[in-house]
């Protein structure tokens, strides 16, 4: 069974109604990203940060997977599908995808601000002042701006092992995730699905599908099942 490795970004979740900060010049529902999504913000005003992520968690729980999420999940019937996502929502999992690696953390998890491996699931609002078992505050289990991305070490070998590599709904502007395409095998078929595809340089064996994820991904899935690549 051929291995498909997929990198997904904010564009796929946007079609389920989840806004991206890049859509609004660094503002997200009126919040300045610097004030709510950096370690400095957490140290300065943890209550505000929790308020922001509580709002985002509620938005995620109200959203539903779209046709692109469903198409990726359905591909598991014919391929060994591994999804690497920049998104912090659980829409891939709710669509049925089994192998999902979250590069930037998960909105439905919280972790100790002291121990990144002390993690607990959370589906309600996080309360200011609540403590993890180690006595430190719970913080959102999110990789903030200015923090390293530990999961990239797991993502790179996955991409290197791909028989087919797909990029869906990402501008390829957020690093280190955007650099993953460079690790795909030279001769493996590569596809990018997005409504506005950036310049991709000299990527070998690349097919561009310029369409919204919910339209382009089902079309691509059908081509893959028919081995039209």
What does this structure look like?
By secondary structure, the protein is an alpha/beta fold. The protein has two domains: 1-18 and 67-104 and 149-229, Rossmann fold (3-Layer(aba) Sandwich); 20-62 and 111-142, SIR2/SIRT2 'Small Domain'. The protein is built from eight helices and eleven strands. Strands 5-4-1-9-10-11 form a six-stranded parallel beta sheet, sandwiched between helices. Helix 5 packs parallel to helix 8. The two termini are 15 Å apart.
Tally of individual helices:
8
Q: Can you tell me the CATH class of the largest domain?
A: Alpha Beta
Helix percentage range: 25-40%
Q: What is the rounded Rg?
A: 18 Å
Helix and strand element order: EHEEHHHHEHEEEEHEEEH
Produce a short descriptive summary.
This protein is 29% helix and 22% strand.
Descriptive labels:
SIR2/SIRT2 'Small Domain', Rossmann fold, 11 strands, three-stranded antiparallel sheet, alpha/beta, 8 helices, 2 domains, 229 residues, six-stranded parallel sheet
Which secondary structure elements does this structure contain, and how are they paired or packed?
Elements: E1 3-8, H1 10-14, E2 27-28, E3 31-32, H2 33-36, H3 39-44, H4 46-62, H5 67-74, E4 80-85, H6 91-95, E5 100-102, E6 105-112, E7 119-121, E8 138-142, H7 152-160, E9 164-168, E10 190-194, E11 206-210, H8 213-225
Parallel strand pairs: 1-4, 1-9, 4-5, 9-10, 10-11
Antiparallel strand pairs: 2-3, 6-7, 6-8
Helix pairs in contact: 5-8
